[in-house]
Amino acid sequence: MRKRKYNIAVVGATGAVGQEMVRVLESRHFPVNQLMPLASKRSVGKRVRFKGKRLIVRELTKDSFAGIDIALFSAGGGISKKFAPIATKAGAVVIDNSSTFRMDKTVPLVVPEINAVDVKKHRGIIANPNCTTIVTLMALYPLHRAFGVKRIFASTYQAVSGSGAMGIVELEQQVKALARGRKVKMNVYPYQIAFNALPHVDVFLENGYTKEEMKMENEGRKIMHHPRFQASTTCVRIPVCRAHSIAVNAEFTKPVTVTAARRVLKKAPGLDLLDDVSKNIYPLALDIAEKDNCAVGRIRKDTAMKNGLSFWVVGDQILKGAALNAVQIAEVLAGIKPQ
Length: 339
Ligand code: A2P
Prior knowledge:
By secondary structure, this protein is α/β, with parallel strands linked by helices. It is about 30% helix and about 25% strand.
């Protein structure tokens, strides 16, 4: 029997995540019939490499989705809000990387290693979760299955590429300006990001947390099917180009030991255990950048709570935190076995 091939649109194909979506479709040999790279008017005529060809970027319009089977969106919330319903009306299934539909009860929010079964419930749109939430859950969920998580306290160390391609440009320009003794320019961030740490990711809410910080609890509950899960998170932007790191203190209902936790994490899909402090082995953003798997280390009994565990988890937020997770959702849709 010939395998089915899919017509795929990538909305935001010139962006940090969109470019990676195209690369991941190719590297994982997703059965693509036609690939349609879409972006704004500004990018029309630019080319995107796919399987040895240079495909022309087209402007996203309401007519872009005729004949498209799966549309991967990563062009910001406004574009998703306007164009995802147009794409589904044209018959495409949308996998959306923005936060627009994530908490919509009719939209599955999926990390394939955790809740691939939810994909089946889709009504045209499937949401890709927040990058920091995905990376954290890659280690937390297996522990939750074994020991039942009650709550976590987490601090994040987030790379500038999480703000899109312009985040990297801003960091590089500031580093160069400072090296030449010049003043830095700020466009993406409210303060200098070079040689700094900004406790401010996304917009502030009434409760003093940012929207990004609340995603950990809200999206975590939905993905893990755990409505009582609690998360108190501080999100920090740091001058790292790629890969987010998260320090997690987790409290479980069942007693937990480091040995038992390591045994669980060693078997977890999509996760590497890098945990031997006697040899200074722990995950580093620089090493995990451009890797598919997330990595966990610094696993220790938490000294401040009962049944508590502290750990450090790192993941490439453009890959597992966005593009790879989206393509994995497409694989679930297409009935392709996990790689
Ligand atoms: P463009 O490059 O033409 O501006 P990033 O998150 O890295 O900044 O990327 C955002 C992506 O979203 C880019 O591919 C960008 O295309 C795309 N995008 C932004 N605004 C629009 C728009 N109005 N229509 C279509 N694509 C858009």
